[in-house]
Design a protein that fits this description.
Elements: E1 14-20, E2 23-26, E3 35-41, E4 44-48, E5 59-66, E6 69-74, E7 79-88, E8 92-94, E9 106-114, E10 117-122, H1 123-131, H2 134-146, H3 163-175
Parallel strand pairs: 1-3, 2-4, 3-5, 4-6, 5-9, 6-10, 7-9, 8-10
Length: 176
């Protein structure tokens, strides 16, 4: 599976992420859907919502989480709306910039958290969180093999092809 940019055609289906007694990471360009359904029981789920391939507008996360941790990697200016999220038992939503006004994409949390927590990482912290993962090493290897750039550090940015590849194509077209 390549993390490189492709055409921007949003899917209208609901993306499902399930984690039962395990750890699940979805980093880079893993979905084009505006609706993500997360079901977790005694698990850790990491979701990267910084991708440039996500369609414009609101993203809805439908949660059903029991004794789990959900880590969201968001763009710096994203708005986290938790007004429709039901908290059962001892739950936490950890967002350092919770009370700072944001004016970007809205991420709406709905559903139920049961003795669970949500951790929000934005900007540089989200980049570091993505880079300190096994998936980043795999992304770097794939990018090196294909002659492209790794996507996981900042999937919200368009990644141009490396200069060496452009020079090779330019010299090939001149020799024709």
């Amino acid at each position: 599976m390549s993390n490189q940019h492709t055409e921007h055609t949003p899917d209208l289906h609901t993306e499902r992420v399930e984690a039962f007694y395990t750890s699940v990471k979805r980093l880079g360009h893993w979905t084009r859907s505006r609706t993500v359904e997360v079901r977790a029981r005694r698990s850790a789920v990491h979701l990267d919502l910084r991708s440039a391939q996500l369609p414009d507008g609101e993203i809805e996360l439908r949660l059903l989480s029991e004794r789990s941790m959900l880590k969201l990697l968001l763009p710096q200016d994203a708005v986290l709306d938790e007004s429709e999220l039901r908290l059962v038992g001892r739950c936490k939503i950890k967002d350092r910039e919770r009370h700072v006004p944001h004016h970007g994409r809205v991420v709406r949390l709905t559903g139920t958290l049961q003795r669970s927590e949500i951790r929000v990482a934005r900007g540089g912290v989200a980049t570091l969180s993505a880079m300190f993962s096994r998936e980043f090493i795999d992304d770097c290897r794939t990018a090196h093999r294909d002659g492209t750039w790794p996507v996981l550090p900042d999937p919200g940015e368009l990644h141009p092809r490396p200069e060496a590849e452009r020079q090779h194509e330019a010299s090939a077209s001149r020799s024709r």
